[in-house]
Amino acid sequence: ATQYTCMLLRYLLEPKADNEKVVMKLKKLESSVSTGRKWFRLGNVVHALQATQQSIRATDPVPRICLTLASLNRVIYFICDTVLFVRSTGLVSGVNKEKWRRWAARYYYYSLLLSLVRDLYEVSLQMKQVAHDRAKREKSPSQDPLRYSVADEETEWLQSLLLLLFHSLKSHPPLFLDTVKNFCDILNPLDQLGIYKSNPGIIGLGGLVSSVAGIITVVYPQMKLKTQ
């Protein structure tokens, strides 16, 4: 959260000439925090392997396949990231920095893409459940039929779909947090791979939102999306 806050503030302050000192301090702090994160992430390969073992036990085949492949790609990503970190410390030489960085971005992208596929699958299940519950209420004689009527007009199908999506995510906060987190995280590899070019401001904002979502799942473990 600190790293991406610095990135976002630096992007906002850079256009102003009288903020050069502040921008330099933010840049140094961002670099220092980024280096510190590399140290803390050295054990993430083990964590990703453990996540792979857990996802294999999922009963639903779609989350099982998506999460297992996502975890395996995350393992490769952390290996590439570790190689880049060791290279930056000067312990090894002859490592092509750009090639390894592109490999890391690619496998990170694959991991997040698979995680988003899982999220969309879970969202579709929630939308079906909400639609089913709504249909039950419509059939109930005690309910006002106008209150829960589904729009039949073709021009209103998008509004009905968005309303259904809103109620689905509202009824399942862990799914909402996981979807937002993965969507915000994927902005970085999209930019690095040249798939969708962005800027440090958007990446910083996305990283900050993702970090806050991650903090919420740590403080409140019940908000973490569970593997069924």
Automatic annotation (TrEMBL):
Name under which the protein is recorded: Peroxisomal membrane protein 11A
Family annotation (InterPro entries): PEX11
GO biological process: peroxisome fission
Pfam families noted in UniProt: PEX11
Keyword annotations: Membrane, Peroxisome, Peroxisome biogenesis, Transmembrane, Transmembrane helix
One cellular component (GO) term of this entry: peroxisomal membrane
Keyword Oxidoreductase: no
Organism: Muntiacus reevesi (Reeves' muntjac)
Compartments reported by the entry: Peroxisome membrane
Transmembrane regions: 201-220
